[in-house]
Design a protein that fits this description.
The protein has one helix and ten strands; from the N terminus they run αββββββββββ. It is mainly beta. Strands 1, 2, 3, 4, 5, 6, 7, 8, 9 and 10 form a ten-stranded antiparallel sheet that branches.
Length: 141
């Protein structure tokens, strides 16, 4: 595995996000008032230049599930290997259609955008030479 991908896998472990979770969450559940669990489905990882790879979260060493804790303002990710990462939420913005969370982890910026109606989520993690886009879904447990 390339060093940049390995670094991003370590740094982005917290970010593994969202998948096809049961659409039982309502827009009220997706307003930042209830904690969320998200499952990562598809991941695109790109290093500087034209080199990008697609796969599952586990293919990149990322956690397949993340937990968004609004009370403690943190995102927690857990990978199969037992690795657990915690990242503080620095900003929360809400519109009629989206709930957006942002933070910084070891010099890498991340952003999570959750569709308040469907629970579908996209997460981006950007570093100096590598970036991830993660797609999936969130629901309130």
């Amino acid at each position: 595995m390339r060093p940049a991908i390995r670094l991003l896998s370590h740094v982005a472990g917290f970010a593994a996000l969202a998948a096809s979770v049961s659409p039982s969450a309502s827009a009220a559940d997706l307003d930042g008032s209830r904690n969320l669990v998200c499952a990562a489905v598809n991941v695109v990882a790109c290093v500087e230049g034209p080199d990008c790879r697609q796969g599952l979260a586990k293919d990149f060493g990322l956690g397949e599930f993340i937990f968004i804790d609004f009370k403690d303002k943190v995102v927690r990710a857990h990978a199969e290997a037992g690795i657990s990462n915690v990242s503080p939420i620095k900003n929360v913005e809400q519109s009629n259609t989206q709930l957006v969370l942002q933070g910084v982890e070891t010099g890498h910026g991340w952003s999570i955008s959750i569709d308040r109606k469907t629970g579908r989520v996209s997460l981006s993690l950007a570093g100096e030479t590598v970036s991830y886009m993660i797609f999936g879904a969130c629901t309130a447990p």
